[in-house]
Specification:
Radius of gyration: 19 Å
Bound molecules: zinc ion
Number of helices: 1
Order of helices and strands: HEEEEEEE
Shape: elongated
Mean pLDDT: 79
Oligomer: single chain
Distance between the termini: 40 Å
Structural class: mainly beta
Number of strands: 7
Helix content: under 10%
Largest sheet: 5 strands, antiparallel
Amino acid sequence: MDFFFCLPIIFGCPTKIKPEGNQGARICPRCHNAAMFSAKSRTWFELCFVPLIPLNSKHVWMCGICQLQVHVQPGWEPQVAQPGYQHPQVQGQYAPSQSAGYGPGYVQPQK
Ligand SMILES: [Zn+2]
């Protein structure tokens, strides 16, 4: 049964982020872009790039631009982005056009 000894076994515990719900964008406390959304962060035991066992999951706030992750905690949540919100420092750079509305920088989860 030499086959099993030659087979390279690659395993790891990557964390996958899955956006939750369809909430409005929140303002990131670090980069101040309206790109924060609530997400579920789940760590998987993965063998040869196939997720096998979910190890643990937690709810986080995730910024789609600077990748900041904040644990969901009672008593704090990111500020809701109001229509017309613009970045306080680089105004106009990330601000969407007034007619298009907000589009958080993440890909919708596949069902
Ligand atoms: Zn950010």
